[in-house]
Amino acid sequence: MKVEKVTVSVPAGTLAALQRVQRRLGKTRSALVSEALAEWLRSQAVPDADRRYAEAYLRQPERAVDSEATAAGAVAEWDRWE
Fold first, then answer.
1. Domain-embedded: residue 50
2. 5: closest CA among 30, 39, 36?
3. In the chain, which residue ranges form alpha helices assigned H by DSSP?
4. How far apart are alpha carbons 8 and 2 in whole angstroms?
5. Among candidates 29, 49, 33, which has minimal Cα distance to 41?
6. 27: which of 9, 18, 31, 53 fits an S-S bond (Cβ 3.0–4.6 Å)?
7. Per the domain annotation, does 54 fall within a domain?
8. Is 40 a domain residue?
């Protein structure tokens, strides 16, 4: 795989965190940044509608009472097995 060299600026805290992970995993800084960037690019491939749904769910998760009410409403329409 052909690689290109780039220069980027990151906040000092981000670099320090990267260096801690680098030491723990025994990988190069380039390898870690490449992996992180590749993962971020993959995450951008998620359809916008799916991403908006997930972001909204994280902001306001479904409450158990809402799920129970939805399930009860669906089951109420079923024929009894008696």
1. yes
2. 30
3. 12-25, 29-43, 48-59, 64-76
4. 19
5. 33
6. 31
7. yes
8. yes
